[in-house]
Amino acid sequence: MIAADIRTQTLNPAKLPGLFKKQFELCKVSPGQTVAIVSDLGTRTEYIEAAFAAADMLGADIYEMKVNMIPGWTNVGVPTIGKCKGTLEALKACDMILIFHVPLFAAWLREVMHAGVRVQMIIDAPDDLYALQAPAGLKDAVMHAHRMYEKTRRVHVTSKAGTDLTYSCGEYPVMSQYGYADEPGRFDHWGVGLIHTFPNEGSATGRVVVQPGDIVILPYCRYVQDQIVIEIEGGHIRSIEGGLDATLMREWLADGKEHEADMDPYAISHLGWGMNPQCRWDALALYGDSPERSRAAARCFPGNFLFSTGPNTQGGGKRKTRGHYDLPMRDCSIDLDGVRVVDAGRLVDPKMIVQREAR
């Protein structure tokens, strides 16, 4: 019996080499450069072949380094590189890394970036690589938002549902992604378009009210079904109230505790918003809730407020907890030092608005 929710891939597989070539060009891959692929036991073979073909078309050198594991979607900070002798040194010597699992919050990623290596993450399905590839103007919009966020010292997030959250900025760097790794030391994720930062330690205070239709993109990949009321004080979640979705959140964060007094899973992590017009809020409804179909699309639809908990090592902090929760929220308003950039889920700064391309 064939399950009714299986979606057939719509992208012709023969187009993948051309799609990868376009991505490599966005990443400024040129003749004589060395591209290293970091794959794993679950990486799509057709992606490796497409990357080899694209590099060949551009005159770049390329090789594959396959790790002996299948990194899970729900674990962050897994050290896939560095345990085998010579692997970290080899990657620090190349020009760009293509990685097919999530390296975020892992120490080796910071090392290769500090060495000036570009890192391009590819973790989405072929249809999404095609549909979400960065449109014209996305980099400019994201970097405009990046510069505004860098100057911001106080953020206020509100919603008609009752969200009223404030936090301070400046202790940690702003991180931006526009879909391609085109500069030395840059990490990016094919298909995204967003910015975020980690709030100053202890500064996040207030209430976050998660509504039906908001999305839990990590760890569950599901639309929220019932309201979650999250009370935050001193940079940490103090209570999570509601129905099933609140219970799921409480249980997941509690499961990430290393000891009874461990508060790291409840700390507020990266906070920001999406700007890629190719990304759709209704992607889970259209294409199913497989993580491969919702990693970029659900995280970066324009005007969402991305709320998260747990680790902050990617920004230079010390929290390594696996109690990580990513929750893109709709209909929120975001004020940066009193200047509104998102109003009820709509981007209002014209320099952050990018036109959607028909694909």
Kindly describe this structure.
The chain is an alpha+beta fold and about 350 residues long. It folds into 2 domains: about 15-125, 3-Layer(aba) Sandwich (Rossmann fold); about 135-350, no CATH class. Helix content is about 20%, strand content about 25%. The chain has 8 helices and 20 strands. The protein has an 8-stranded antiparallel sheet, with helices on one face. Strands 2-1-3-4-8 form a 5-stranded parallel sheet, with helices on both faces. It has a 5-stranded antiparallel sheet with strand order 7-9-15-16-17, with helices on one face. A hairpin with a 2-residue loop joins β18 (about 330-335) and β19 (about 340-345). α1 crosses α2 (about 45-60). The relative contact order is 0.14. The model has no long low-confidence stretch (mean pLDDT about 95).
**Molecular shape:** globular
Distance between the termini: 33 Å
Percentage of residues in DSSP E strands: 25-35%
The string of secondary-structure elements, in order, is HEHEHEHEHHEEEEEEEEEEHEHEEEEE
Structural class of the helix and strand makeup?
alpha+beta
Average pLDDT reading: 94
Please count the beta strands (DSSP E, at least 2 residues each). 20
Helical segment count: 8
> How much helix is in the residues?
10-25%
Spatial strand order of the main sheet: 14-13-10-6-5-18-19-20
- Oligomer classification: single chain
Largest sheet: 8 strands, antiparallel
> What are the low-pLDDT stretches, counting only 5+ consecutive residues below 50?
none
Tally the structural domains: 2
The value of Rg in angstroms is 20 Å
